[in-house]
């Protein structure tokens, strides 16, 4: 191997390690004491709560509160206080549905369970929380999850879908396989015409797909197409991360996922290696989606691993 090629490889490896260390450090050192919970009324009795981590949806009404996701553990008290502040009900959070197992969506589970809420999620959410284990895009983005405490585990799980009949609404959680993870649900509030898409739909650019935990870009595309086909045109969309959205935003995101998948699929058909795809900058036209968390190279890895079936261990449903 020529000396300068070696040097390039070493410096690329060092850059990758540095990027990974920054990501891990920012997750561990986040100062939650300064986080404020912002509450937005989405429609009727549905609210969106933003703090740190994934967006929360709340159905707040005469029967009590149903939460979709619960961010990080240190925020649980602030979230409870923000819900009380809405001034609609003093009744507690009766149910929490987790859209998937990641800690920025399930971190408040233990505190809410201890306060009397019932935790609900897809079968694989419970399995992955219980076992812990590696997560990542199958390439340069790698994390390791510790097993969750027993009190953080959903005690009601479902394989396909579940409905909670509260506050005059049929709150419907539906599983879509192999999307952001292997345990994602999208939550529909039909009376209020609102949907919470979990991390199958995010606004921070190229999505992080937990290929190591059975996710795939194709599964996300499938979930987005099926969901947009069944929702009214003026549905309000709560993304897993980012600002309140509409179906046009979802369609634009889906289009990007499909176009970038096609480019990587073509490169695979042309027998290009992963490194050749990165060097040829095959996704240069989508550079505006490159972010701090998932940059273009990490997203090429994600597509490569999704399309070649390097999906990590896939948990079977029962
Ligand atoms: Zn996630």
Quick recap of the structure?
The chain is α/β, with parallel strands linked by helices and 318 residues long. It is built from 9 helices and 15 strands.
The helix/strand class is alpha/beta
> Bound compounds, please?
zinc ion
Mean pLDDT: 91
Roughly how much helix do the residues carry, as a percent range? Answer: 25-40%
Tally of helical segments: 9
DSSP E strands, number = 15
Low-confidence stretches: 18-25
What global shape is seen?
globular
Run of helices and strands: HEEEEHEHHEHEEEEEEEHEEHHH
Describe what you observe in this structure.
By secondary structure, the protein is of the alpha/beta class. About 35% of the residues lie in helices and about 20% in strands. Strands 1-2-3-4-5-6-9 form a 7-stranded mixed β-sheet. Strand 1 and strand 2 form a beta hairpin. About 5% of the residues have low confidence. It binds zinc ion (ZN). Zinc ion binds next to loops.
How are the secondary structure elements laid out?
Blueprint: H1 3-28, E1 38-43, E2 46-50, E3 56-61, E4 64-68, H2 76-85, E5 93-97, H3 103-106, H4 109-114, E6 118-122, H5 123-131, E7 133-136, E8 142-145, E9 156-158, E10 161-166, E11 169-175, E12 185-189, E13 194-196, H6 217-230, E14 236-238, E15 245-246, H7 247-269, H8 274-279, H9 296-307
Parallel strand pairs: 4-5, 5-6, 6-9, 13-14
Antiparallel strand pairs: 1-2, 2-3, 3-4, 7-8, 10-11, 11-12, 12-13, 14-15
Helix pairs in contact: 6-7, 7-9
Bound molecules: zinc ion.
């Amino acid at each position: 191997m020529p000396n300068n090629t070696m040097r390039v490889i070493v410096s690329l490896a060092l850059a990758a390690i540095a990027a990974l260390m920054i990501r891990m450090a920012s997750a561990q050192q986040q100062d939650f004491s300064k986080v404020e919970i912002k509450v937005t009324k989405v429609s009727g009795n549905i609210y969106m709560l933003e703090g740190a981590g994934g967006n929360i949806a709340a159905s707040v009404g005469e029967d009590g509160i149903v939460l979709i996701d619960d961010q990080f553990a240190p925020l649980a008290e602030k979230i409870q206080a923000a819900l009380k502040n809405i001034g609609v009900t003093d009744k507690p959070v009766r149910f929490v549905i987790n859209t998937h197992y990641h800690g920025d969506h399930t971190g408040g589970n233990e505190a809410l369970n201890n306060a009397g809420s019932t935790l609900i999620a897809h079968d694989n959410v419970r399995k992955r929380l219980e076992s812990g284990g590696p997560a990542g895009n199958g390439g340069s983005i790698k994390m390791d999850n510790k097993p969750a405490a027993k009190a953080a585990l959903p005690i009601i799980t479902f394989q396909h879908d579940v409905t909670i009949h509260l506050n005059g609404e049929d709150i419907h959680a539906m599983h879509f396989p192999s999307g952001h993870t292997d345990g994602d649900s999208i939550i529909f509030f039909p009376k209020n015409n609102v949907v919470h898409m979990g991390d199958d739909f995010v606004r921070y650019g190229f999505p992080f797909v937990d290929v190591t935990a059975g996710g795939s870009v194709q599964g996300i595309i499938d979930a987005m197409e099926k969901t947009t086909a069944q929702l009214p045109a003026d549905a309000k969309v709560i993304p897993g991360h980012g600002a309140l959205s509409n179906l046009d935003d979802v369609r634009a995101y889906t289009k990007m996922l499909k176009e970038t998948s096609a480019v990587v699929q073509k490169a695979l058909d042309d027998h290009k290696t992963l490194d050749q795809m990165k060097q040829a900058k095959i996704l240069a036209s989508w550079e505006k989606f490159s972010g701090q968390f998932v940059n273009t190279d990490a997203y090429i890895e994600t597509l490569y691993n999704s399309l070649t079936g390097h999906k990590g261990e896939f948990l079977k449903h029962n």
